Amino acid sequence: MPIPNLEKPIIKGLIQKDKVIVDGVELDGTWNAFMIERTQTGYDQSVWDEIANTVEGATISLCWQCGTCTSGCTMREYDPNYSPRRFIDLARKGDKQSLIELQDSIWRCVSCQKCTHRCPKGVLVEEVVHSIHNYLLKHGLVKTDPGTVFDELFLETVMKNGGRISELILGGASAKAGFVTMSLRDLLTMMGPLLKSGLIKDLMKPSRVKDWDKIKPVLEEAMKEEVYPE
Amino acid sequence: MTEILNPFGKVALYPGCALDGLGKAYDVTLQLVAKDLGINYEKIEDYNCCGALEVKNVNTMAGLLLPARNLSLARQMGANAVMSACPGCHYSLSRTQYFMTRYPKLREKVNSYLEKMGTKQYDMQLLMIHAVEFIYNTVGPEGVKSRVKRPLQGLKVAPYYGCLYSRPKAYTLTGYMKMKDDPERPVFMDELLRALGAEVVPFESKTMCCGGPHVYSDVNTSLHLEARILKDAKRNGAELLITDCPLGHVAIESNMNKITEKYGQDLRMPLTYFTQLLAFAFGHSPEETLLTANLTDPMSVLKRYM
Questions:
Q1: What digits encode the pLDDT tens for the residues B132-155?
Q2: Domains of chain A from N-terminus onward
Q3: Which of A111, A114, A193 sits opposite B53 (nearest CB)?
Q4: Does residue B102 share a domain with residue B18?
Q5: Which residue of B has its CA nearest to A229?
Q6: Counting Cβ atoms within 10 Å, is residue B69 exposed (0-12), middle (13-18) or buried (19+)?
């Protein structure tokens, strides 16, 4: 990974003078060089602010960049670009460009919670990473990834099937969306036990929540509401 | 029978969609085991999906409100604790409790929506526990041992807890209380299985993730993670993989053939839910415990104890 451009302007420029006299003493060598600006600029604070203002992302400010989350991360082994620590670092700097470059990795969190569990500072790392990802999606900076497509499909299935799902209905919906490829052999191994136990009936028709018609609109209304960590 | 000390008070079972679906064997055998051991719980009626690991990623409010409704229903039953058999549900419910405790305004909002739905406000008075913790803390290994009719002497098992059984400690409170398991190296299920006479093999992947949430959307990662779990169990000589997570159970079982094809190494191994093995050791028949209805064939190993 190259050094992000944002870190380059730390030293904006130098003033070097041939002759410097302070309190009557003449300075020479490196003492006669001065930095004009010592503050890092080019940060986009709005990214951090917006993420810190979500219920999931509120703990982003606690991060000390120690890297415990990333060293134990399940995904990192399979995708070297996957790094919760780096996602948090880039989000805090507001380096959208670098985050966009990592878009094929950032969605791949499997929610195993090792990072959150181990964080010595109490950062809810898994939640924060999802919040960063949601920020990118919300502002149209990244394309919709398979993980998000599936998550949306899951919610849709819950809403459509009376507040509950069955693996078969969800599997069916996923197959329709092009996710599942099942060979005939897979189907045959699945079907035997399902028929033997009589499970197939329960799976095809999951029972609905009784007053779902009343509950569903309330849920839909609630889902539109903006919520803040307070 | 001596009265069993139950530190949890009245326990409500949140079955979740898994136990009413592909995890039916888990549900049936949990009932059998609880009856045999003389421990009581009551099912939450008219529950809804907990949102699993998916809903929270696409909508914050839905991710909190769905579990909160179940918690409120449990309180209406007068429960003091909610038991989940599925670590995913356990996680979702605990997470909601965490956020509702942490943010009072958010809690008010969730509660006002609960009232609109026709449920009572949730008063934050519940402890979330997992089925393994429930059995371990009520009857314990000794209680289990006294019920065994078919000692499983010489059976080598690898207990697979899954990731969310113990993590993260902020939500599940593991590591903070005596009645909760060790957060990184859990042992409750090991001890229950040992009480059956089985030999628990060393198993590094105990709490490793199986890639469940991405089993459809990122299938290669899932296969990779599942292969690693099977490989660790096999290398240490396990004959059976014992699960307490319906998602992990179904994901590993249904991908077994694909894994073997992909990695060119025979990693096939039968799986049972821990309650299935308990019920079998307590003398129930393979049909009763639905051991014959698993996608893999645990009876090929267990028939020597019949």
A1: 999 999 999 999 999 999 999 999
A2: 45-139 (1.10.1060.10), 146-213 (no CATH)
A3: A111
A4: yes
A5: B103
A6: buried
